[in-house]
Design a protein that fits this description.
alpha+beta; globular; binds adenosine monophosphate; binds magnesium ion
């Protein structure tokens, strides 16, 4: 048992006070010889943890699941979910929640070990994870955080000293994931399908208390919960679209009530602008293509709403109607968020009716000319327009005049518009070839320097510093399309 005083662990276990249908208590599954690969100092400090102690043998033992902090009550969460449209029972098959860290500023964060061994929800799986996918989650989740997008965070990755068998033998690893909770749409689907009314209500009350404490005991607090989740998810997916993030596996078990991005599997950033972009090798029907993501969030929200119907009204059809009405507002919320973000990317402060058309025609040209999404906005920001095929076309030149006239019509100076664009268009994203190179040197050669340098560059995406320039280069041309894998 790790002493909390020295390490800074200050755990509560509010989730374990829910009805026990929502989890199974488990004991750690020790691993052979844990080794710390990467540790997030800044995150540790913000959580009130002692960075040095945690990197000692005793601290690492916690990240490996070999020991638990004094106040931990390790458990695996139960949940269900629609995977690629099909409903199924799931649950933490390779993860355990060790508790909720209470931070010095009074916040509460789940501390979850991912890859920590078998649980009652493992089905045929081994409960383990490979080093590559865990480092990938670390890199992308931290990049998302730096981009200002709500996300789970990564505190540490340890290797286990054990191999796991996938197509080949791979080094096993465990990621310590930090999230404002792991309440998923699928947690509610599980409760609605297999729980009692009281259990579903207990879960909804818990979610409100944890994420939406401002919702009062007014006439319909569960409708308020649904509306709040719709808002959060609308904001989130708009932010994904604006930076070109493709989640890759937007099953309902991978959508959070908190509105944080979670479960980084086959995710990747779009390079060439194309709404049809899919990287995940298992997404054969392009269900989770870039351009489809907002619709899928809408579909997932409908599944979440269905699970709440019995709480919305004593009469089923009245409850369904309330859910329907709430859901019908999602497209508008999404679009308003996205449009506001796009205006900022173009340096536009105020609203004009024609803005949507201006943005659409830019995106249409970008798609036709197959240009890089991030770099096009960077070039617009820094007026380095000669560098792309797009910028020589007569259509673009005409568009640019309209855009400049639009900027002239607003009160704010060109300088302010430029500032807004700098702050809205990242200098760097985790480009696929950079992520792959970092993972390859780490996993194949045990050399983490490439990854550390990449993490450093990604930690200030709006700095537009000279060192970042080389990280903006696009993937070398290849005959093979780029694919990502789930890593399960
Ligand atoms: P994911 O694709 O990571 O969202 O996982 C979907 C489901 O499969 C979840 O219930 C996971 O806990 C479970 N799962 C994924 N990988 C494994 C594994 N190696 N062993 C057991 N369960 C797993
Ligand atoms: Mg998942």
């Amino acid at each position: 048992m790790t002493k909390q005083k020295e390490s800074g662990w200050h755990l509560d276990n509010s989730y374990s006070r829910l009805p026990n249908t929502f989890f199974t208590d488990i004991s750690p599954n020790p691993v052979e010889s844990p080794e710390l690969i990467i540790f997030n100092d800044a995150l540790a400090v913000s959580l009130g943890l002692e960075a040095q102690v945690l990197q000692s043998e005793e601290g690492i033992a916690v990240f490996a699941g070999n020991e638990v902090p004094e106040d931990a009550i390790p458990l695996a969460q139960a949940y269900a979910g629609h995977q690629f449209g099909h409903f199924t029972m799931l649950g933490d098959g390779r993860a355990m929640l060790i508790g909720e860290q209470l931070t010095p500023s009074g916040e509460r964060f789940d501390i979850q070990l991912k890859g920590s061994g078998r649980t009652p929800y493992s089905r045929a799986g081994d409960g383990r994870a490979a080093l590559g996918p865990m480092l990938r989650e670390y890199i992308i989740s931290e990049a998302m955080h730096a981009l200002g997008i709500p996300t789970s965070r990564s505190l540490a990755v340890v290797t286990t000293g054990e191999s796991i068998i996938r197509e080949t033998e791979l080094p096993g690893a465990i990621l310590t994931r930090v999230a404002s909770s792991h309440l998923r749409f699928g947690t509610f689907q599980y409760a609605a399908k297999w729980g009692s009314d009281e259990e579903l209500r207990a879960l909804a009350d818990y979610a409100i208390e944890r994420h939406f404490p401002d919702i009062e005991v007014d006439d319909n607090r569960y409708l308020a919960l649904l509306q709040a989740v719709i808002q959060r998810q609308a904001t989130l997916v708009a932010q994904w679209q604006l930076v070109g993030f493709i989640h890759g596996v937007m099953n309902t078990d991978n959508m959070t009530i908190s509105g944080e991005t979670i479960d980084y599997g086959p995710c990747a950033f779009m390079d060439t602008y194309d709404p049809a972009t899919v990287f995940s090798s298992i997404d054969v029907q392009s269900r989770y293509a870039y351009g489809n993501q907002p619709n899928i969030v809408g579909w997932n929200l409908a599944r979440f709403a269905e699970s709440l119907i019995s709480l919305l009204h004593t009469d089923y059809s009245a409850g369904a109607k309330l859910a329907q009405d709430a859901l019908s507002e999602f497209p508008e919320h999404y679009y308003a968020n996205w449009l506001a973000g796009m205006r900022a990317k173009l340096g536009i402060f105020n609203e004009e009716q024609q803005d949507a058309a201006l943005i659409d025609s830019l995106l249409r040209m970008m798609e036709q000319q197959r240009v890089d999404y991030t770099n096009t906005f960077r070039a617009l920001t820094f007026d380095t327009l000669e560098k792309s095929v797009l910028f020589g076309t007569p259509e673009f030149i005409e568009w640019q005049e309209l855009w400049q006239a639009r900027l002239d019509r607003q009160q704010e100076s060109k300088e302010l518009a430029h500032q807004l664009m700098r702050n809205s268009n990242p200098a760097v994203i985790p480009r696929n070839h950079r992520v792959e190179a970092a993972l390859e040197t780490a996993v194949e050669h045990g050399d983490y320097s490439v990854m550390e340098k990449l993490l450093n560059v990604l930690s200030h995406p709006y700095a537009h510093s000279p060192e970042q320039a080389e990280y903006a280069t696009t993937m070398p041309e290849s005959d093979e399309p780029y694919h990502t894998y789930c890593g399960t």
